[in-house]
Every structure is written in C-alpha cells, then in structure tokens.
Write a structure and sequence with these properties.
Distance between the termini: 30 Å
Largest sheet: 6 strands, mixed
Strand content: 15-25%
Strand order of the largest sheet: 1-2-3-4-6-9
Oligomer: single chain
CATH class of the largest domain: Alpha Beta
CATH topology of the largest domain: 2-enoyl-CoA Hydratase, Chain A, domain 1
Order of helices and strands: EEHEHHEEHEEHHEHEHHHH
Mean pLDDT: 93
Structural class: alpha/beta
Length: 259
C-alpha cells in the first residue's frame, strides 16, 4: 500500500508510504490521496485528517522519474499532468474537514506544498522545508499560492528564489509551522490537536473553513460585512448550532461530540 490509513480516535491518519524514495509523489500516490479524501469526506467518524510520512522523510516532492517523463511531453499534456497536483493542493486547502500536516523529516518541493495547503503544520525540531525547484531550472508554480498564504509574500519570495532550506524552528518563527516539538513528542502533540478540533461541530468546522477562504486577503467592505453576518445567520439556523447552544445551557456534551 502506497498510502496507509490509520484510525486514531477522531482522526484518520493518511501515511504516505513510499519510504524507499522518501515518499516522492507519483501518479499512483496522488491518486491514492484523491481516493482517500473522497472516502474520508463521507466518513462521519473521521473529524480530522492527518498527513504523515513513513520512513525518514515527510515527502521529498515530485518523483524525479515522473518529472523526467513530463519534460518530454507536449506542452498541453504537461499542463494536464501538472494540473492534477494543483487540483490536489486546492482540494486539501478547501477540504471541509481540518487537515494537520505531521512533518518529521524533509518536506521539499511538493512535500512543502502539501504542508502549506494543510490547515495546521506540526513539525519535529529536525524537520526541514525547501523549494529546490529553481536550482534545477523549474519553478514551484502550483505550490506558490499556498506558500504566500502560509508565510507571507516576503518570506515566500526568499525561499522560492533561493531554494535554501528552512529549519522547523525558523518555520515556526515566521508562521509557516504552528508547532515545533521534539520528535519524541510529535505524535502526542498532533493527537492533542486532533482532539481539540474534534470538540467542534463538524458543520461549524466546514463553515469556518469556507469563511476563511472568503475573507482571506479580502478588503473589508460593507459587502463583506453583510456576507459574514449572513454566514453567522445561516449557522444559527442549523440544527448543529441549536443543539450546541442547548447542550451548553443543559451542561452536557452536544450530540455530535464523539464519545
């Protein structure tokens, strides 16, 4: 299995499982991730997804053999091939359930893109991020919007252009990683974050992610004020919010809370 799915409480851990090539992304692995996202979206017991990697690396990026083949494709075919990874990144970014990237080793190129497209990044102190594309004549094209979102335009400019490595402590300092912890504590910290996320209503999480997509970078205008008020009104009218408010006053857990 090139993608292992492990259930841990409210979370589904998606383990990239090509350790012999440092979990490099090829067509089969991308397809397995796409399928897993489809399945987990319909699984009510999976409140949170965790992206993780088997072996010494989180993900070394695109498979070099795959890139060599792409270099020989027609421009139209190459664009279609690249679009598949672009769609995967957008799917992660807009996914209705929270996604946590568990980064324990190198997260290079597309691997850094997977982390950037996730909602939360938890990195081991030894983890490293890098965008080496320019050093081999390429560009981190599909990844770039998520990098700018995750670390800001100025920092993204540095790491995209230089290709230098970004340590986990520095990644946390500039806001790319949310947590930087000893490797021995990595799974425990990720587990605690998953438990916290699972306390929220699943519809509320999906609505919040959709709202974040709308307001991120948007100008604060009267129209945006109306849209945000509408988002709250729609949430209030839902059964989940009614149950949540009722459970608060009755001093009990809401019905959606996993036992």
């Amino acid at each position: 299995m090139i993608l292992d799915i492990e259930r841990k409480g409210p979370a589904a851990w998606l383990w990239l499982n090509r350790p012999e090539v440092r979990n490099a992304l090829n067509d089969e692995l991308i397809a397995a991730l796409e399928t897993a996202l489809d399945v987990m979206q319909k699984d009510a017991a999976a409140r949170v997804l965790v992206l993780a990697g088997r072996g010494p690396a989180f993900c070394a990026g695109g498979d070099l053999a795959r890139m060599e083949k792409a270099a020989k494709m027609t421009k139209a075919r190459s664009r279609r091939e690249a679009s598949r990874f672009a769609k995967l990144l957008y799917r992660l970014h807009s996914y209705p359930k929270p996604i946590v990237a568990r980064v324990h080793g190198p997260a290079f190129a597309g691997g850094m893109g997977l982390a950037a497209a996730s909602d939360l990044v938890v990195a081991a102190e030894e983890a490293e991020f890098a965008l080496p594309e320019t050093r081999i004549g390429l560009v981190p094209a599909m990844i770039s919007p998520y990098l700018v979102k995750a670390m800001g335009a100025q920092q993204a400019r540095r790491y995209i252009l230089t290709g230098e490595r970004l340590s986990a402590p520095e990644a946390q300092r500039i806001g790319f990683a949310h947590e930087c912890v000893p490797a021995s504590e990595l799974d425990a910290v990720v587990g605690k974050i998953c438990e916290r996320l699972a306390l929220a209503g699943p519809e509320a999480l999906a609505r919040s992610k959709k709202l974040l997509l709308r307001v991120q970078g948007a100008a604060i205008t009267p129209l945006l004020a109306i849209e945000t008020a509408t988002a709250l009104a729609e949430a209030r009218a839902g059964n989940e919010a009614r149950e949540g408010i009722r459970s608060f006053f009755e001093n009990r857990n809401p019905a959606w809370r996993l036992k």
